[in-house]
What does this fold into?
Amino acid sequence: DAGVTQSPTHLIKTRGQQVTLRCSPKSGHDTVSWYQQALGQGPQFIFQYYEEEERQRGNFPDRFSGHQFPNYSSELNVNALLLGDSALYLCASSTLTLGANVLTFGAGSRLTVL
Amino acid sequence: QKEVEQDPGPLSVPEGAIVSLNCTYSNSAFQYFMWYRQYSRKGPELLMYTYSSGNKEDGRFTAQVDKSSKYISLFIRDSQPSDSATYLCAMLNSNYQLIWGAGTKLIIKP
It folds into this structure.
């Protein structure tokens, strides 16, 4: 049973560029959340998608946007990259029947902005 | 002040020791308390979750919640080198969003 898969695992961008990160949730999960984890910090909630709509959003600017597809997979887009966007981006999936606190995380996409 | 405070460590103990990891929080509305383990280059993995106050045991792991003190703990008995990881506490707020501590890096020396 595949868990949460994320791609790419690593990528390097320059300031001002745009990036798209992808996530496939665990089989049976229908809710996808995205987190940003800076080095030495806990994850920070970016947003959550359910039924192809953004349901909740954390304190992140509009440069961060996302999408969920009918097969529950999801994308995170970041525009106009800043140096401070360098971080590990984590995707987590869940399902309402398990509860919002039971998340399965992927290994993350490590973004470096130069 | 952060909503959830956690000592970043590192905490280094010999194999077989009992480990105590702790978090404090400021929001009395938190009801669900989680502990995640994160190995290097991996995503966090849910270890245990507890609702409200009390203790919960799962094998070598025990989670404790003291809501009156706004203090939660994770105890690891008979610690093993494979327990070496970063341990993150997380709490569910009223919007069903997880609020995380910064994580404590734990090193178990063989």
User: Anything to note?
Assistant: Chain A touches chain B through 20 residues (CB under 8 Å). The mean pLDDT of chain A is 94. The first strand of chain A starts at residue 5 and ends at 7. Residues 31 and 107 of chain A are 17 Å apart (CA to CA).
